[in-house]
Design goal:
Length: 292
């Protein structure tokens, strides 16, 4: 059990690290700046600008002068709006706005058409506007720790690979999720879901599937359409059984499915299916996931 738990923690840590370094890849160290003053001294060199925890209520106008800026981090500030001129920063591909005071996604965001990663986690969002679909290059969308009830029409992001909507108030996932054919990692943990749409099982690239702490009563056998699946987390739901085919998926490493409503007999039967020494947790909850 200790060996299995250690592997689980290591696997989650790797996912966390990979999510953080996405914005830093291919950026030379001398192009990374962590204060506005240092960035102003070398405006054409700035590719990464990190202004976290600066108590900002506005985005500094100097950002517009950093014409090679790729990645802008403004987490843990006091932002509630964004300036219209941000749309003129055509080089920005990563925008991190987590832990601010946004209750809506500003319209200017939908005009930043070169964005590949957008993080609005830890704000006060309740609805995701349909206009977000204008972000045709977006690969990562992080909306965790908000008050989202309705994902709206935000399912036409055809290049999206990672969708994290942990700790919200989502009650259903629309059938339109089938349009996200490139989706690899999906997390709707800690919401109010009671069932999953059949369409979600038709996404061909899923390798990470996390829906822990909802009210889901059943996982369809169609989950085994996910031939690339390495990780599934459905702990803390209302499941009485799991699809047996999960244990024979070629790439599966972790099945985290404790704290459900299995009978003792079901646990014994499922345990016997684990002939490949997959990391399986059926009786106890393990560490949470979705990259934090």
């Amino acid at each position: 059990m200790i060996k299995n738990f250690t592997y689980y923690v290591f696997f989650t840590f790797c996912l966390l690290v990979s999510s953080k370094v996405f914005a830093l890849r291919d950026i030379p160290q001398d192009s990374c700046f962590y204060s506005l003053d240092s960035a102003k001294a070398h405006p054409t060199k700035v590719a990464l600008l990190v202004l976290n925890g600066k108590k900002l209520t506005d985005v500094p106008a100097e950002v517009l002068t950093f014409t090679n800026l790729k990645s802008l981090h403004l987490t843990h500030n006091q932002l509630a709006t964004l300036p219209a001129w941000l749309a003129d920063c055509k080089s920005i591909e990563t925008l991190i706005l987590s832990n601010n005071n946004f209750d809506t996604i500003p319209r200017v965001i939908t005009e930043m058409v070169n964005l590949k990663e957008l993080d609005f986690s830890g704000n006060n969002l309740s609805i995701i506007p349909f206009e977000i679909n204008r972000l045709g290059k977006l690969e990562i969308l992080v909306l965790s720790d908000n008050q989202i009830i309705d994902m709206g029409g935000a399912y036409e992001l055809y290049n999206l690979k990672r969708l994290l909507v942990r700790s919200n108030r989502v009650v259903n996932i629309p059938m339109g999720i089938i349009k996200m054919r490139k989706l690899e990692e999906v997390c709707f943990a800690k919401n109010n879901l009671e069932e999953l749409p059949e369409q979600i099982y038709l996404l061909p690239q899923i390798n990470y599937f996390s829906f822990f702490n909802n009210k889901i009563k059943a996982i369809s056998d169609k989950v085994c359409n996910f031939t690339n699946l390495t990780y599934i987390n459905v702990l803390g739901n209302e499941l009485k059984d799991l699809p047996e085919c999960l244990f024979s998926l070629p790439k599966i490493n972790i099945i985290n499915a404790g704290a459900n409503n299995y009978s003792k007999e079901t646990i014994e039967r499922l345990t016997k299916l684990n002939t490949r020494k997959i990391n399986v947790f059926l009786e106890k909850s393990q560490n949470e996931d979705c990259f934090h």
